[in-house]
Amino acid sequence: MLMDTELLHKVALSMMPHVDAALARVMSESGVSPSAFFTLEPRELSSRLGLTLKFDSACRDEAMFKARRELDFMERHSVRALYLYDDDYPFLLREIPDAPVLLYVLGNTDLNAHPVLSLVGTRRCTPYGVGFCRSLVSDLAPYLPSAMVISGLAYGIDAAAHTAALDNGLVTVAVLAHGLDMIYPAAHRDLARRILSTGGALVSEYPVGTRPFQGRFLQRNRIVAGMSEVTFVAESEVKGGAMSTANQAFSYSREVVALPGRVSDVSSSGCNLLIARNKAHIFTSVPDVMELMGWKPEIMGHQVQVGSPRLFPELEGDSAKVFQCLQASGCPMSVDEIHVATSLSVPSLMASLTELEFDGIIVRLPGARYELA
């Protein structure tokens, strides 16, 4: 079977030293594709990218060798690879400065679902935190049946978050700190199978053979925060992975919501600190969260009458901008194209697209593209 050369070059690019999101953006702006990166002479490549750093042939050959092995694994196990500028790459994640150049995905779920939230916390959780996970997700699910819940498959709150999503019929995604050839902790293999069997996904930026260690868990946390419109912190001590995720979400200008606890409870000390320092909203109720995020209840069962939309809908605000953009274009547009044309933030844009789709004003096409109904 012939190997997909374009995909091979994307995977190989992610395996090159010194290649990160910043360089991938320079490549995009300079018109240097991943394939061109591996075919141009080193001197010409550095010149095109405006860099003094030279990517020699031996280094590129080694990356190509590793990429061929990776593609063999991907083909055997139905793993997808999403490059930073692929249509299916999570748009919210692409916004962050340190986004992964490549994501490996096991599972066919749409990572550009809306709304998308992360739910994180300590491994040493209490019944208070686990109960919050259950009630938060069960209260949200009837209003937002297409919501996606993201967490890290760790012990404690992560496992409670995935389980709550599964129990309430929501898609859930686990972001891993290692390659997709293993599950850590091993005790969560059944949970991982449930995630996949119900339409969710396992996501990692690491190739096969990459084993977990502390630094990779911290790296993983930026993906959890970056993929999400809002990060909920159920329980956390002052130091811990959940605090890292919350602080990263805050640095990306994403909303953070923390569950307050008693000042005497060590497991709530991190949440209380986030609230005290105005890095997180205090959790009060699901309706308050929906108002904060601008989320509107979805039509149950997604029964949208797209056959007879209003010819001249009376729209205002962000929805009007999106409608006018698609009307002026006259052809399907990707979320990225609409984002650039309207200058709306991605969370606001996704909210407007969802509202317009439910109102039957626009339709979603394959490849996460939109056009007027």
Q: Main attributes?
A:
Arc Repressor Mutant, subunit A, Rossmann fold, 3 domains, 373 residues, three-stranded antiparallel beta sheet
Describe this entry's structure for a reader.
There is one protein chain. The protein has helices at 5-14, 21-30, 34-39, 42-49, 57-77, 91-95, 127-140, 157-167, 189-197, 214-226, 241-251, 269-276, 286-293, 317-329, 335-342, 346-358; strands at 79-83, 102-106, 116-120, 148-151, 171-175, 201-204, 230-233, 255-258, 281-282, 333-334, 362-365, 369-372. The protein is α/β, with parallel strands linked by helices and 373 residues long. It has three domains: 1-74; 116-293, Rossmann fold; 304-372, Winged helix-like DNA-binding domain superfamily/Winged helix DNA-binding domain (Arc Repressor Mutant, subunit A). Strands 1-2-6-5-4-3-7-8-9 form a nine-stranded mixed sheet, with helices on both faces. Helix 1 crosses helix 5 (57-77) and helix 14 (317-329) crosses helix 16 (346-358).
